Automatic annotation (TrEMBL):
Keywords carried by this UniProt record: Membrane, Transmembrane, Transmembrane helix
Transmembrane segments: 12-31, 43-67, 87-120, 141-161
Name of the protein in its database record: Putative Permease of the major facilitator superfamily
Native organism: mine drainage metagenome
Length: 177
């Protein structure tokens, strides 16, 4: 059991992505409300924003701001005061993610777009470190590198799904968002 918990923590972006999917499915399964395409899409988007943006970036904030030496070691880098700045940027992404979970599509786009630029930039950096410095540290390759690429793609796909589901409603219903 301890090794399973460690695996979940070591791969927290993937864990939180899967948690968001499970919570969305549970939320839809437990509701008595009609499961319209828009409700299904918005439920998955909401839990994605809460887990994969809000909670994941909050964890990143805590690690880089308060456990910088550990975070640096996991990535395979030397500790740096810059990690605190990465941490506070992550806190900003986390806050926008939480607010966007209960906002409209525009705020949802903002909550995915900023982290997408950060994560895809990080993926490029991790790839460069892998090739140039042969950095195979756990936080540089594997699930971390994979989720740096995957999480924004999932976010944009969920936004597109929500936009398509919303566009099927009448103009009057859309104006009340």
């Amino acid at each position: 059991m301890a090794s399973l918990i460690r695996l979940a923590f070591d791969n927290f972006p993937l864990t939180l992505l899967l948690l968001g999917v499970l919570l969305a499915m549970a939320s839809l399964g437990l509701t008595r409300r009609e499961r319209t395409p828009e409700r299904i899409a918005s439920t998955f988007l909401r839990w994605f924003l809460l887990c994969s943006v809000g909670l994941s970036f909050f964890v990143n904030f805590v690690f880089h701001s308060f456990y910088g030496d550990l975070a640096a070691r996991l990535i395979g880098w030397a500790p740096s005061p810059f990690q605190y700045e990465v941490g506070t940027a992550s806190l900003g992404f986390a806050l926008v993610g939480v607010f966007a979970a209960f906002g409209g599509l525009g705020l949802g786009l903002a909550a995915v777009l900023g982290p997408a630029a950060f994560l895809w930039g990080a993926a490029i950096g991790h790839g460069a470190q892998l090739q140039q410095a042969h950095d195979y540290a756990q936080g540089n390759v594997g699930a971390m590198l994979g989720t740096d690429i995957l999480v924004p793609l999932v976010g944009f796909a969920l936004l597109a799904w929500q936009a398509k589901a919303q566009s099927r409603r009448s103009v009057f219903a859309r104006s009340r968002l």
